[in-house]
């Protein structure tokens, strides 16, 4: 049972990235899936998430209107589309699954800088 994030990197302010979170050993459908981030010397914070039925998604105020969480059932993968990126979005981004299992990914680094 694991989650593997990918898609991080260096991007200029105003740019976009799409993070992926590939699940194995369980199906994301039926799990509460969330993205968190942790900036240097800061606490890990929740960024976005869905309910287990994927009928509702929610976002932190700091990313609302810029980030979108989605899933691809066929690929058993969850995504975080990030647009209009700001330097304060710089962090390690983590995927989390909560249900029968409680799983964290290893994280992917996002750096927003000119």
Structure overview:
With 114 residues, the chain is an all-beta fold. Helices cover 0% and strands 53% of the residues. The chain has no helices and 11 strands. Strands 2, 4, 5, 6, 9, 10 and 11 form a 7-stranded mixed sheet that branches. Strands 1-3-8-7 form a 4-stranded antiparallel sheet, with no helix packed on it. The chain is globular and about 40 Å long. The mean pLDDT is 97.
What keywords describe this structure?
114 residues, mainly beta, seven-stranded mixed β-sheet, four-stranded antiparallel β-sheet, 11 strands
Brief digest:
The protein is built from no helices and 11 strands. With 114 residues, the chain is an all-beta fold.
Major β-sheet, in short?
A: 7 strands, mixed
Uncertain runs are: none
- Seen as an oligomer or otherwise, the chain set is single chain
Shape: globular
Secondary structure tally: strands: 11
- Computed over alpha carbons, the radius of gyration is 13 Å
- Give the topology string: H per helix, E per strand: EEEEEEEEEEE
Give the averaged pLDDT, no decimals: 97
Supply the number of helical segments: 0
Q: What structural class is derived from the secondary structure elements? A: mainly beta
Strand content: over 45%
Distance between the termini: 38 Å
**How helical, in percent, are the residues?**
under 10%
């Amino acid at each position: 049972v694991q989650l593997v994030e990918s898609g991080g990197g260096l991007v200029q302010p105003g740019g976009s990235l799409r993070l992926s979170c590939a699940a194995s050993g369980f199906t994301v459908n039926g799990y509460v899936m969330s993205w968190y981030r942790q900036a240097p010397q800061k606490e890990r914070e929740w960024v976005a998430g869905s309910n287990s039925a994927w009928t509702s998604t929610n976002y932190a105020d700091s990313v609302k209107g810029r980030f979108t969480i989605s899933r691809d059932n066929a690929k058993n993968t969850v995504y975080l589309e990030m647009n209009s990126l700001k330097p304060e979005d710089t962090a390690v981004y983590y995927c989390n699954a909560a249900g029968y299992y409680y799983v964290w990914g290893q994280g992917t680094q996002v750096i927003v800088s000119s």
